[in-house]
Design brief:
Membrane topology: Multi-pass membrane protein
CATH superfamily of the domain at 338-568: MFS general substrate transporter like domains
Structural class: mainly alpha
CATH architecture of the domain at 338-568: Up-down Bundle
Order of helices and strands: HHHHHHHHHHHHHHHHHHHHHHHH
Shape: globular
Number of helices: 24
CATH class of the domain at 338-568: Mainly Alpha
Strand content: under 5%
CATH topology of the domain at 338-568: Growth Hormone, Chain: A
Protein name: MFS transporter
Pfam family, one: MFS_1
Transmembrane segments: 37-55, 67-86, 92-114, 126-149, 155-175, 195-216, 240-261, 281-301, 313-330, 351-373, 385-407, 414-433, 445-468, 480-501, 541-561
Distance between the termini: 35 Å
GO cellular component, one term: plasma membrane
């Protein structure tokens, strides 16, 4: 059930690909100002990555199942806000909460696998989790396209809301049987409410009802002479500086106060605050600032013209300052976010480094394969170009399960290296693609080989990390693996795009002026083909760079996972050898 939740959250990462133009117009952003839509994407990424270490640490302290349930509740709440969004801040806030909830599912699920399976039997379950996550990335755009064919973009997030709540209820129903493996203490289970908190339920319903009125602003109420006064702002034209906005905030405060002081509230707010403090909230916020600076510097840039956004250097400067403050805090805190020595073993921190380069290579496939298709055979149709990537993504989960199976017999370093060398070979084959190659069956060789290669590398990296970290830090450790891969993706796409653009401009210099080639004609196929050749050269340069990143990941895996075996031994035996 947790794996299903991971797949669904992964689908939501890509579900906005086709819906983004409609989402922009739905919140009042003109379609010709695409740059203003960047926060819709970066808001999700920020929530997904920046809060992962904190959620992973909470999973270590509070237990896996409670964090899974809470993550799904946050995902559902973010989906609700996104569904009802009326302006850019509200839609970005909703996407941020979706990212926090969706990202929190990954470390909790990976840690749950480590709790439920001994080290020599984790490979296949870890491969399955990686596989369903990638299947979700395949289904995301297709799910969005299917919904948009019969409804508008808000229906996508309304479905997310319903599915998130159903999955949370299902996992919560299984909690008594899973609690023995989740890290929950007996006194925590005993403190659960045995009777419904009716006051809390009423306050929660009142909060949602009032909030819905603020978001939806029903025309019937607004036109009424009496009820319409609830929507008259005290100042400006904001929706919250109104009587109904004040009522909503007041009810929310009452709900939080009840959850804090009631003996058995609907939400154990006081308990969660204690866990946040114990998980090192200060350290988590400093790390979130550091990661947020990196994300904003790269995610808000236009990769076609710049590596960083216009304020990227300031974002990176803030990230460096926050990272330095985090390092200082970890050395002085009694219970830091990352327990001292948690990642001291070479395979543990090595997994983070390998994951970084895996992400740097993977992003080239996810972004530049569709771009290559648009440059060559599908210049005027985005959907077929995106479907070319599906061939790659379908092979990836197959490789993930195979990689999980192979580490039962082979070293994770060997399996990871073979996978990444296959990925590099796939990219090298892509550098041979021409104007019409994607229309030929031979193109599938590169896509399948590359997808299988990346899949092979996913489970071994996670398995090596989990085998060389203690049980009580599995949540935060796996969170850092995901963070490393995501940061690698962001930095990788900027660096590789810069390399590609240099090649493009070099090729463009030898293209004759349009007047010479077209001889005054308004349309000139020859000139267009020359520009397409320059675009192909750009993508080839990106593929070569991605192949280099994949080779680096393979070499690092062989060196840093040298001698690591997770078959036929227990976790304690693996750790004792190092």
């Amino acid at each position: 059930m947790a794996a299903v939740a991971v797949a669904f959250a992964a689908a939501d990462t890509y579900v906005v690909v086709l819906a983004l133009p409609d989402m922009m117009t739905g919140v009042g952003v003109p379609i010709d100002q695409l740059q203003r839509a960047a926060p819709i994407v970066s808001g999700f990424l920020l929530g997904y990555v920046a809060m992962l270490p904190l959620i992973g640490r909470i999973a270590d302290l509070r237990g896996r199942v409670p964090v899974l349930v809470m993550s799904l509740v946050l995902f559902a709440l973010g989906s609700l806000i996104t569904t009802l969004a009326y302006d850019m801040p509200s839609i970005v806030g909703g996407r941020f909460l979706q990212g926090v909830g969706g990202g929190g599912l990954v470390p909790a699920t990976l840690a749950l696998v480590a709790d439920l399976y001994p080290v020599d039997r984790r490979g296949i379950p870890l491969g399955v989790v990686s596989a369903v996550q990638e299947i979700g990335s395949v289904l995301g755009p297709l799910f969005g396209a299917a919904v948009l064919a019969v409804s508008d973009w808000r229906a996508i997030f309304a479905i997310n809301l319903a599915v998130g709540l159903v999955l949370a209820a299902a996992i919560r129903a299984l909690a008594p049987r899973a609690s023995a493996s989740t890290g929950e203490e007996p006194e925590q289970r005993a403190s659960r409410p045995r009777v419904p908190d009716l006051v809390g339920v009423l306050l929660l319903l009142a909060t949602f009802a009032a909030g819905a009125i603020v978001f939806l602003r029903p025309s019937g109420l607004m036109r009424d002479l009496t009820w319409g006064q609830l929507f008259i702002p005290y100042a400006g034209d904001g929706r919250w500086l109104t009587p109904i906005g004040t009522i909503t905030v007041a009810v929310l405060v009452l709900l939080l106060a009840w959850c804090w002081f009631a003996p058995r509230p609907l939400l154990d707010l006081r308990g969660w605050v204690r866990v946040l403090v114990e998980a090192d909230l200060v350290g988590a916020l400093l790390l979130a600032l550091a990661l947020g600076g990196v994300i904003l510097a790269f995610a808000t840039a236009d990769p076609k013209i710049e590596v960083f956004s216009p304020r990227g250097r300031w974002y990176l400067l803030g990230a460096v300052v926050a990272a330095a403050a985090f390092a200082w805090h970890v050395r002085r805190a009694a219970n830091p976010l990352v327990p001292r020595g948690a990642l001291r073993r070479t395979p543990a921190w090595g997994a983070l480094l390998v994951s970084f380069f895996v992400g740097a290579a993977l992003i080239a496939a996810l972004i530049d394969i569709p771009l290559f298709a648009r440059t060559t055979v599908y210049p005027d149709d985005q959907l077929p170009a995106a479907l070319v990537l599906v061939r790659f993504l379908l092979a990836l989960p197959v490789g993930a399960v195979a990689g999980g199976y192979l580490i039962r017999f082979l070293s994770p370093g060997v399996v990871t290296a073979v996978g990444m060398l296959m990925a590099a070979a796939g990219f090298v084959l892509m550098t041979r693609w021409g104007l019409t190659t994607l229309e030929e069956p031979i193109a599938n060789v590169a896509l399948v080989v590359g997808g299988l290669g990346f899949g092979l590398a996913l489970a071994p990296v996670n398995a090596a990390l989990l085998a060389f970290t203690d049980d009580d830090v599995h949540g935060v450790a796996t969170a850092f693996v995901v963070v490393s891969r995501m940061v690698g993706m962001l930095i990788g796409i900027s660096a590789l795009t810069t390399i590609g653009l240099r090649r493009y401009y070099a090729e463009q210099k030898v293209v004759p002026p349009v007047q010479e080639v077209c001889d005054g004609r308004s349309r000139c196929k020859e000139f267009s083909d020359l520009l397409r050749v320059a675009g192909i050269a750009q993508e080839h340069a990106v593929f070569w760079g991605a192949a280099g990143c994949a080779v680096v990941a393979a070499v690092l895996a062989l060196v840093l996972f040298r001698g690591v075996r997770v078959d036929r031994v227990s976790t304690r035996e693996v750790i004792s050898t190092h």
